[in-house]
Structures are given as C-alpha cells and as structure tokens.
Amino acid sequence: MSAATVSYLHRVRELLAGTLSSVEAGGSLDLESLVSELASCLNSLSENVASSASDDEHENDVTLNARDDEENDVIQVLDEILKFLSSPQIDQDVIDALSFELPKVISKFAGLSSRCLELAEAIVDRFVVACNPRDMLPVLCEALDAARVSLSLSSSSTPLLHGLSKVFISVRRRHYEQLKVAVPIVLNVLKDMSLEPDMQPEGLFDKALGIAVSIKDVASKLEKEEGTRVRSLLGLYLMQITAVLSVSIKDKLDSGVPLVIQLKPLLAYCGLTHLGLITGNDPERLLSTISKDDDDDFLNSLHNINLGASLLFIWARISPEVADVANDVNELQSNPEKRWLAYGMLKHILAARDLLWEFKRHTIEVLLDIVKGVTPSQCNEEIDCSHYTTSIYAALQAVTLVIMYAPDADLRKKTFETLKRIISDIPVPQRFDVLKALVTNSQSSTMRGILLDQVKNNMSTSSLQATDCDAHVSELVELVLKPPHGGPPLFPDQCDEVLAALNLYRFALLNNSTGGNGFLSRKTLERDYKGWLLPLRTIVSGSIAENQRDKDHDQESSLEILCVLNRIESLLYWCIELVEERLKTH
C-alpha cells in the first residue's frame, strides 16, 4: 500500500467515523462540517489522479505501474465508503448528510476502471435505497449538471444516470413534476456526451435507453391524466434522444440500426406512428398534452423533437427492420396536405449542421419519393395552402443549402430535382410568392441565378401565365440589377444572377402581350431602360475591357470570365432592343 493510499484511506476512515460520533453527540453542525471535509478530501484525491494522468504523456513501465497504484488507491477508498454505507449501525441522519455531497464527487472516479465504475454505482445505489427518493432526485440532478464540465462526462455520468433511473421508479407521488425537473438535465448531459470525439453511440444509447425504460415503468403505474402526461413526456424524450444518438454517429449509419430498433416497443407504447412523426402531428399532439402549465425552460429542453421525429422516419427508410413505411410514403404521395407537412419536418434534417451527410442523402431520396408522379396539374388549388407556405418556404431554403454544400455531384443533382418538384407541388396562388421570398433572401449569387431560372420555368406553364406574376418580374430583376444596398451588381461575383435576371426579363418581354399597364406600361419600360439597362451596358462594357487587359496575367481565369460577360452583354442588348421596340408602339 502506497503512502498516498495510507494518507487518504486513513483520513476517509477518520472522517466517516467522526460523522457517527457527531450524531451520537447531537452535533448537527459538526456532522455538516465533517461531510464537507470528506468531500474536499475526495476531491483532492480526484485532482491528484487527474494531474498524474495528464503528466503521463509518454507511457512506460514506470508510469503504467504508477497508474495501477493510483487505481488501487481509489478502489480501496471507494470500498471503504461502500462498507461504511452498508453497515447496519449507520444512522439515517449520517447517510442523509452524506447523500448530499458524495454522489457528485464519487462519480469522478467512475472512468478510472471498470472496478471503480462498479463501486461508484454501488455507492450511488446505496444512497438511492437508503434515502428518500424525493430528496435524491435533486441531488443526482445537481451532480449530473456539475458533471457536464468534467473531462470525462461519459464515465462520470454513468453511475448518476443509473441511480436516477432507479429514483424515478421509487418516487411515490407528483411523478410528472419530478420528471419535468430531471429530464431536461438528462437531455443536456446526453447532448454534451454526443459531441465528445471518442463517444461511442452504443454507450450513449444504453444510458439514454435506461432512462426511457424507467420513465415507461413510471407511466405504466399511473392512471388518468398524470399517466397520459408522463407517457407524452416519454414520447418526446424518445424523439429528442433519437436526434442526440444520430448526431453521435460519426461513421457508418448501419451501426445505429440495432440501437434504433430497440425503440420500437417504446414508440408503440406512446402511440407514435411513423406517419404521425413525419407529418409532425404526433410531436404536436404530445406537446399539447404536456405544455399546458409548463415553463419555457422545460419546453426549451425539447427543442430537437421535430428533428428526432423526422430522423425516426429516415431510420425506417434506412432499414426496414426499424419499420415498414411504404404505406406511409403512398399516403404522402396521395395527400397534398400531409405531403406539405412532411416537407416542413424534413427540413430539420437538411438544415442540421452536426449530422452526417448520409442522413441528408436519405432525406433527399425520401423527398423525391413522396413527390414522385406529382405534377403541377395535380396540385389541388381548392386546398388552402397558405397555412403551409411558411414551412414549405423553410424546407426549400434548407434544400438550397444542400445544393450549395453537398459533397458530391450525384447528391447535388438529386437535390436540384427535389427543388424543382417541391416548387411544382405548391399551388399556383402561393408558388410565385414562395419563389420571390427565396430569391429575395438568398445570399448566394449562384443560388439566386438558379431560383430566377425556376421563376422563368414556372412562368412558362399555362397555369402560372394566368396569374399576375408578370407584375412582379420587374421587382425581382431590379433586386439584382439595382441592389437595395446601393451600387451596380459586382462582376464577376454576381454574373450568375445577372445572367438569370436578364434571361427572366427577356422571357417576360417576349411572352407578355397585354401591354398598356403594369409590367409593360410605358412608365415602367422607361424606368427599366434608363435606370437599369443602359447603366448596366456601360458597366458590362467596362468589365469586358478590364478583363481583356488582364488576360495576359491570368489567361485561363480571364477567358472564363470573358465568356460569361459576353453572354451577359449579348442578352443585355437583346433586352434593350425589345424594350426599344415596345416603347415605339406606346
């Protein structure tokens, strides 16, 4: 036994014995002081172990032996504490006092070895059995919250989560209120763990599932309203941990399939269906059940439930072992309103930054499937789409992000096809408004060009020609040719959107024969001619001349820019000629 062991072990024994003596003497203040000193002693031991581990950068026989000695030191100290807590002579006041401090510090040793983890869990379990569960719940929650700043959150949280799962079952009343306090803390811990570079999804899932099973056990014992609320909380928890688990997967998705399969009975117990998840109806239903009297802090802890609900559907598409969703896809194909709801849910995956690209690839494939066979003529314009427009717009924004940042051409191609099909699925009265909002809010010149092309392509359909979208063409073209922040468009940075804007303007001129008012009124044409087209001609000519001069320095780059500028110039002259012809007829 090392000198350090003798020192710490002897001091721990002294302090534990002192707690018994203080109670016998009726000194509550002495007991509190002794417990605090014991916690400080254990914290000191923890810091020494952590310091030694950080100093051992280069392992050799000496450092390995020293580490083994430290592990044995900790094991003996933990074993001594467990024996003391298990003694039949221990007073309840002593164990209650120790329960407020020891779980927090004991958990710090759990990552040292499997034996240390075993002893730490046994000590926490002893407190759970011996103390009032209503008192232990805030103690373990506080310890979990404190563990979030530790260097080994995964290991230090294990005995605490294990104990918490037992406390849930032991609580005798006000179950929902107790869970409402604990679940956000558990979710924060699990989220932090998912971001650890060495975190294994299996280990994370086991911890999350243990809590879920305990909540189910609680719900199964309750009746009426409280049982419904706990069951609803469990359903939302399952969605949230699905999001956390998916983020923790850093390699192959296949590794997550056996884990998600284990959620099937719990999802069924909560009355969740994959159609209800992908349309958002199930998350909304569960939230409405629990959120009547809940504060914002609790609801904010459930901020990823829509992401988790969408991911549960995607996991089912990844593997039929998770669920068979073929009938759900058929339902989405045939029901526009449910399909629009699905767009709004799947956007959460496309916009998520921490997920593997494979999740987004599967999501794009699902979107292509559910819009398969849907043509503009099939869009039932009698259905009011205005309620869904905001979420469809957000979904399309997420789709454009995938187009811009996808890691390979195949995914970009599929995503572009998805963009076109979703736009076509929007009823005509709302379609141009959505396109206009996408163009206006896009920060990418290339994406603005793509979206302006979609405006033109949709104007070519007979249904869209019947609307007054021509009246808004000038507004979109002005956004590009005369930016609201001032100044002309910048070349070559904005070549893509300028080319697309001129193409749209030319198309509208050629296909609008109404004359007289609005888009083709003399006032509007003169404004366009003098305000945009002639000034742009000067700018484009200057840019071409400048690039001609720079051709000798960087021939390949300048030639590429010149080709684009020449196309812009040609299209610009065409637009000028068309406007001049129109002005002659007015």
Automatic annotation (TrEMBL):
Please give the GO cellular component terms listed in this UniProt entry. Answer: cytoplasm; nucleus
Q: Name one GO molecular function term.
A: ubiquitin-protein transferase inhibitor activity
The family database entries (InterPro entries) matched by this protein are listed as: Glomulin/ALF4, YAP-bd/ALF4/Glomulin
Q: Which biological process, per GO, is one annotated for this protein?
A: callus formation
Highest taxon above the source species: Eukaryota
Quote the protein name from its UniProt record.
Aberrant root formation protein
Organism for this UniProt entry: Brassica oleracea var. oleracea
